[in-house]
Amino acid sequence: MVCYLAAGFTAAMDQKMALARPIVFGNWKMHGLRAEAKALAGGLAERVGRPSATLGVFPPATVLAEVAAQLAGTGILVGGQDCHDKPKGAFTGSISAPMLKDAGAVAVIVGHSERRHGLGETDALVRAKVQAALEAGLLAILCIGETEAEWLEGRTLEVLERQLDQSWPQGASAARVVVAYEPVWAIGTGRTPTLDDIGRSHAAIRARLERLASDGDKVAILYGGSVKADNAGAIMAVAGVDGVLVGGASLDPDGFFAIYRAGGGA
Ligand SMILES: O=C[C@H](O)COP(=O)(O)O
């Protein structure tokens, strides 16, 4: 098992070491005032001890530095939820990848559907953000996923392939980018694809990554969308699923820890 401490994470990525599986990431989204964030991070650290796998949280930017300081030395990594595609400039309200790194982040989520569909982010912009993350030395968590209409029309694989083709930066490597497959219709709804469908999508993503990157066979692929303690074990047991990106259930330390344990983390 390989454990990543925040301080050694970039060095580990530079050495092209594999992320230890399972990879369990919690995206807090727009939740967490300072006291809540402190209690959540503390509760998680208390339950986990020293992670045997890859465990990370993605708090709101306002509490990122405090959470990163609180979790320093625990082996739990901390990341941002989005970054601008430029390192600095006159972009009111935006946060750059170097700023996230400066605040203690080692990773950043890009292309989440709540930004693609809620805020109109395109594949081209997502690709530029992945590049910005890589240039700042952050691990990029590249999110892709079909809408409900695309799913109902049977276009899931075609959409995933297009999103990868248009948002995977040329020359990016498995050590620096993780792909998160999140069907938009499964996010926060309590609905999930069947295990067979998850396996099929992950296999298609893998096949595409093998065409896009020389080490595409090694890119970690996560599943996200209504992952809870009671379905996490079955989902992480699907061939080709390297871990999960959890939203709502990551806001409860007991539930999030149970998900981590369900994937084999100790
Ligand atoms: O980033 C996380 C995903 O959007 C999943 O959210 P959820 O677990 O609340 O469905």
TrEMBL record:
Q: Which reaction does it catalyse?
A: L-erythrulose 1-phosphate = D-erythrulose 4-phosphate; D-glyceraldehyde 3-phosphate = dihydroxyacetone phosphate
Query: Which of UniProt's keywords are assigned here?
Result: Cytoplasm, Gluconeogenesis, Glycolysis, Isomerase
Q: What is the enzyme's main class?
A: isomerase
**Which regions form coiled coils?**
none
User: Which function does this protein serve?
Assistant: Involved in the gluconeogenesis. Catalyzes stereospecifically the conversion of dihydroxyacetone phosphate (DHAP) to D-glyceraldehyde-3-phosphate (G3P).
User: Where is this chain's protein located in or outside the cell?
Assistant: Cytoplasm
- Give the principal location in a single coarse category: cytoplasm
Q: Which gene encodes it?
A: tpiA
What protein family is recorded? Belongs to the triosephosphate isomerase family.
Q: What is this protein called?
A: Triosephosphate isomerase
Documented EC number(s): 5.3.1.1
Lineage of the native species?
Bacteria, Pseudomonadati, Pseudomonadota, Alphaproteobacteria, Geminicoccales
